[in-house]
Structures are given as structure tokens and as C-alpha cells.
Fold this sequence. Notes:
The chain is α+β, with helices and mostly antiparallel strands. The protein has helices spanning 2-18, 24-27, 94-101, 157-165, and strands at 31-35, 40-44, 49-53, 56-60, 76-81, 109-113, 116-122, 132-139, 144-151, 167-168.
Amino acid sequence: MQFRFSLLGLLTLLVACTAHVPTEKRFEDWEMYTNETYGFSVKHPPETTVQEEEGYIRLQNYTDYDDVLGLQPGQYYLEIHLPKDPAQEGFATCEDDFAQRASEPVAVKEVSVGDYTGYRGPGEEGGDAGGTRHALCIETPDRYFYVQATENSDAGLIANAILDSFSITE
């Protein structure tokens, strides 16, 4: 009897812990954010707030004044840095950008973002809500994007799904 109770307890815990983890089906209700000024689109979970400033856009589904500090399961924030002139920011390429944002050398992976080449790797350390940061950097002839998604999971299921959906519009 005690074994059944333990098994039932374990199953209940497993269901509770995965309730906020996205699955392919959960991505179906995601919404599309499009920014015509900077020429990009990205999918995000519902109930997301958007903050737009010149050169910086933030999407998030948590409030930084929650009673519980830090990101909870299923919560994330996305930061999109759009410098007018990357050279003035102190970097000339995405690889330079990743190197300057990290405290130690990082491995970046080349990825395809539509017709452009991008780079994926760990995001800049720090942050206002904790969590693990995943980043995407894209250079085009006339635009530069550094996109960073943060959540409280090293696996980054939400963060990576968001970064995978990033597209450049013309």
C-alpha cells in the first residue's frame, strides 16, 4: 500500500512539475509579435507584455514585482537589442558580441535565420530575474540583432522555442 502511495505521489509531482513546460501542442496558442520598424517577427507565449524603447524591446510573461523573486516554471523574458551602429557598441560582429558579453570563452553555433546567418550560444550573464540565458545574434547588411531569452530551466524549452521562431521580415 505504501508503495502505491509513493508511486501515486511521484506521478502527481511529475504532472505538477511539467504543467508549465511547453510541448509542441502548447506552442499552437502562441502569438506572433511583429515589429515593422526593425523588420522582425517572433512567436511568444500568450499573456505576454511588451516594452518598446529605441534600440531595445522586451517581451515577458511575469512581473518583476511578484511576491516570489526569480522566474517560476513557465515564465520567461525576451530581450531584443537593436543597436544603430554595432561598432559604437564595441563589437563589429556577432562573434565579437558573444565574446564581450561572456566572462569566459563561449562556443557559438552557426544557424540559418531565413536568408541570413545567425549565431546561437549562451546569453550574457546576470539579469533581473535569474534564470538561464540563451542568445541569438544576426547580422544583415543593414540591421543587427542580439536576442536573448531567459527562463529558469537550463534546457531552455521556452527560450529556445522563442529563438527558433525569430524571423527577419523585409
